[in-house]
């Protein structure tokens, strides 16, 4: 039984797909990166978490339709409805167009994700390729009376929705305008958010589109762009339907972005878009959130330049539960790198043709199915390696099976090729032993030793290993 922690209910719940079909399909949407700069290690903690979740679903026999979007328009520097568009700001800084910025950082993201062994999502839609879908959704909200217009945007009126903020358990009453929350001109409630923003009169935007809307008192066409939240509602519906199984991201998305996604979908279709809402905790550095605006980030490139294997970072992420904070230090990364090296070394010496240990597989399944307890799963890996009751060839097969979830690249570890000459000597020694010619058999063993190979006699016959 797969149990997942659902932010919506603040409980671990048994996972069952919404549509219980024979082909065991599951729909999973994870909010993707804003592609205005390199994704940092903190961002990748979230995408590793999503990848592990997807792999666990697949390990449980589900076919996962995994959608991760690229936010390439509309995410403003404040995370609310003010400030510059991150894409346009980055374009100005780098002397490129906003479109070139998006293409460049999407490519960089894909390269890093691949190095981290993050499996490709089923589809990766871009917000700018779905402007029509977003406009259609805003039109539905308008028809149902959930919107109003100010001089700079079409807003969603959160007071029209019963129960706004249930995901975050927000206290909308407590969020009084003016107290701590800055209110844009014409905004009715502090929690209202922009669905469509009109392009500013004094600045030419690079990314802007025609829409059915104009600011009050303005005639003719005024271009504009979507707010940040509408893209995820429009694209998740398009690719996964009005209700799907799991929606994910990091915890900072709970109070605003996901709360507003829920508001939009509930208002338009009468449903909370996803059954499970899952959120990963932050990667910290010096005990504070790693973030671009905090100015304390490291990218995967920095780590590679320092000689680390990107998968050492993946290993490090696996040592913490996704709902616990993880403080990044170079020391802990070094420890993860040496643990990974030890794992590779142990694994590379194991011979082929073993069986998956049933006992260990059962324990592994129980562990990962308990809301992704990866630290415990990693402890199990080491328990297996040290277990003298399991043969080396079975260890190999079992670890390969675990690695479908862990993604630590064990399938790419070269198996040791045993030269024909060594194989011949091993056979010769076996024959001599059967004939009880112990002395001669020992001499052949010495020869094998001298050639750099070792024989270990096991229940299932001799195992050949390379080196000491
Ligand atoms: P962004 O590119 O800013 O849209 O962020 C992409 C994803 O990374 C979002 O789910 C963020 O919540 C998440 N994220 C940002 N900073 C961190 C961090 N320090 N640790 C974990 N996830 C993060
Ligand atoms: Zn989103």
From TrEMBL:
<dbReference type="GO" id="GO:0008270">
    <property type="term" value="F:zinc ion binding"/>
</dbReference>
<dbReference type="InterPro" id="IPR014729">
    <property type="entry name" value="Rossmann-like_a/b/a_fold"/>
</dbReference>
<dbReference type="InterPro" id="IPR056411">
    <property type="entry name" value="CysS_C"/>
</dbReference>
<feature type="domain" description="tRNA synthetases class I catalytic">
    <location>
        <begin position="19"/>
        <end position="337"/>
    </location>
</feature>
<comment type="similarity">
    <text>Belongs to the class-I aminoacyl-tRNA synthetase family.</text>
</comment>
<feature type="short sequence motif" description="'HIGH' region">
    <location>
        <begin position="33"/>
        <end position="43"/>
    </location>
</feature>
<keyword id="KW-0963">Cytoplasm</keyword>
<dbReference type="Pfam" id="PF23493">
    <property type="entry name" value="CysS_C"/>
</dbReference>
<feature type="binding site">
    <location>
        <position position="31"/>
    </location>
    <ligand>
        <name>Zn(2+)</name>
    </ligand>
</feature>
<protein>
    <recommendedName>
        <fullName>Cysteine--tRNA ligase</fullName>
        <ecNumber>6.1.1.16</ecNumber>
    </recommendedName>
</protein>
<feature type="binding site">
    <location>
        <position position="292"/>
    </location>
    <ligand>
        <name>ATP</name>
    </ligand>
</feature>
<feature type="binding site">
    <location>
        <position position="261"/>
    </location>
    <ligand>
        <name>Zn(2+)</name>
    </ligand>
</feature>
<feature type="binding site">
    <location>
        <position position="257"/>
    </location>
    <ligand>
        <name>Zn(2+)</name>
    </ligand>
</feature>
<dbReference type="Pfam" id="PF01406">
    <property type="entry name" value="tRNA-synt_1e"/>
</dbReference>
<keyword id="KW-0479">Metal-binding</keyword>
<dbReference type="InterPro" id="IPR032678">
    <property type="entry name" value="tRNA-synt_1_cat_dom"/>
</dbReference>
<comment type="subunit">
    <text>Monomer.</text>
</comment>
<dbReference type="GO" id="GO:0004817">
    <property type="term" value="F:cysteine-tRNA ligase activity"/>
</dbReference>
<dbReference type="InterPro" id="IPR009080">
    <property type="entry name" value="tRNAsynth_Ia_anticodon-bd"/>
</dbReference>
<keyword id="KW-0030">Aminoacyl-tRNA synthetase</keyword>
<keyword id="KW-0436">Ligase</keyword>
<feature type="binding site">
    <location>
        <position position="232"/>
    </location>
    <ligand>
        <name>Zn(2+)</name>
    </ligand>
</feature>
<keyword id="KW-0547">Nucleotide-binding</keyword>
<dbReference type="InterPro" id="IPR024909">
    <property type="entry name" value="Cys-tRNA/MSH_ligase"/>
</dbReference>
<dbReference type="InterPro" id="IPR015803">
    <property type="entry name" value="Cys-tRNA-ligase"/>
</dbReference>
<dbReference type="GO" id="GO:0006423">
    <property type="term" value="P:cysteinyl-tRNA aminoacylation"/>
</dbReference>
<feature type="short sequence motif" description="'KMSKS' region">
    <location>
        <begin position="289"/>
        <end position="293"/>
    </location>
</feature>
<dbReference type="GO" id="GO:0005524">
    <property type="term" value="F:ATP binding"/>
</dbReference>
<keyword id="KW-0067">ATP-binding</keyword>
<keyword id="KW-0862">Zinc</keyword>
<feature type="domain" description="Cysteinyl-tRNA ligase anticodon binding">
    <location>
        <begin position="417"/>
        <end position="460"/>
    </location>
</feature>
<keyword id="KW-0648">Protein biosynthesis</keyword>
<dbReference type="GO" id="GO:0005829">
    <property type="term" value="C:cytosol"/>
</dbReference>
